[in-house]
Specification:
heterodimer, A: mainly beta, 7-stranded mixed β-sheet, 4-stranded antiparallel β-sheet, globular, B: mainly beta, 6-stranded mixed β-sheet, 3-stranded antiparallel β-sheet
């Protein structure tokens, strides 16, 4: 069974830093692109970042570019999101999601999601 | 402001058919990128409902179907059931933004 489990969320002061982790199991992690998607309280989904299967290519939403860094450790089957210079606007539930190539779609759909990690930025 | 526009809410009685639109532009849906749909219940993670505009992953009832025309896509739900009450999001890719984009979400209420 595919499982994605996020950790590392919490309450942080504006300007602070936090690192989220997403532990994967039940599939060959190194074969899949991975994404972070966030959802502010009562709001819709916002794509944050993606990393390709070997970690050599990353992309970011403009709202986090230069502040957030996505990375992965295929040996540990873990995805990371380093978040710096956090602001109130970054308050959200952060989901990691697996992108599947099955079907050959463009973009790849997200066929598995974690349960989410709540990040609250507040003074 | 989402690059993909969805109605904030739709409603229907049990057994009825409802559609949810997802309007984009020439840099996303109109550029022939695929559209995917997700279903989300309160307090839970989204679930993939339709992939590649029209395809249902295993386990998704055939009451759910997707279509696309020009710069818009639609999700149709027939034979509406109480358990369909949820929020629905469309997703595609935008070449101008060079990134994944989501619609703002549509809350479906079953009357």
């Amino acid at each position: 069974e595919v499982q994605l489990v996020e950790s590392g969320g919490g309450l942080i002061l504006p300007g602070g830093s936090l690192r989220l982790s997403c532990a994967a199991s039940g599939f060959t992690f190194s074969n899949y692109w991975m994404h972070w998607v966030r959802q502010a309280p009562g709001q819709g989904l916002e794509w944050v970042s993606h990393v390709n299967s070997d970690g050599s290519k990353t992309t970011y939403a403009d709202s986090v570019k230069g502040r957030f860094t996505i990375s992965r450790d295929n040996g540990k089957k873990t995805l990371y999101l380093q978040m710096n210079s956090l602001s109130v606007a970054d308050t959200a539930v952060y989901y990691c999601a697996r992108a599947t190539w099955v079907g050959g779609y463009n973009p790849y759909p997200f066929d598995s999601w974690g349960q989410g990690a709540l990040v609250t930025v507040s003074s | 402001q989402s690059e993909l526009t969805q109605p904030p809410s739709v409603s229907g009685a049990p057994g009825q058919r409802v559609t949810i639109s997802c309007t984009g532009s020439r840099s996303n849906i109109g550029a022939d990128y695929d559209v995917h749909w997700y279903q989300q219940f309160p307090g839970t993670a989204p679930k993939l409902l339709i992939s590649g505009t029209t395809n249902r992953p295993s386990g998704v009832p055939d009451r759910f179907s997707g279509s696309k025309s020009g710069t818009s896509a639609s999700l149709a739900i027939t034979g509406l059931q109480a358990e369909d009450e949820a929020e629905y999001f469309c997703q595609s890719y935008d070449s101008s933004l060079s990134g994944v984009v989501f619609g703002g979400g549509t809350k479906l209420t079953v009357l």
